[in-house]
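Reopening this ticket.

The earlier resolution said the output was attached, but the attachment link was broken on my side. Pasting everything inline this time so it's all in one place.
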Amino acid sequence: MALLVFTACQEKAPEPQEPEVAEVDPMMEKFQNNVETTKAMLQAFCDKDSTKFFSYVSDDFIWSPPSVGQDSLPIETWKEAMKGFMAAYNDIEFTDGQYYAGLDEDQKPNGDVRTYGLWKSKMAETGAEQRLKWYSVGFFNEEGKIVHMAEWYDTADLTREYKGEE
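Inline output:
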């Protein structure tokens, strides 16, 4: 007589583990906050709300416009130029906004904001449509205010009528 013994083994189910939580990069969090500030500032410009628009920059703000030979201009020069732009254009709209993190010397996010987009408006004097491809870098302080804005665009586009080609 043969004795057959059958046994079965059941592996113990693994203990449920907490899912790994990705570490939040504080500089990317700072960047996201600064993107929201940038968007709010651009909307204030579109709304021609100069008081709100100016509130997003520090008292020691420096402006680097695209014009050759002009750099590190003081806040008062910038304010006058922005008031001039607000007066010169109607139906101002910022479209196709793209926001990228500024990088430090080690190519790590530093909280600053690089912005690309297209300004659409109508010249106040003639009603002619206008388009302006725009790039800027906003440098932020610890309080979330913009301390320096560097801008690049074709200054000829400020007076060129848009004829339907991009």
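Reporter confirms the inline version is readable. The chain has a mean pLDDT of 90. The longest strand covers residues 89-103.
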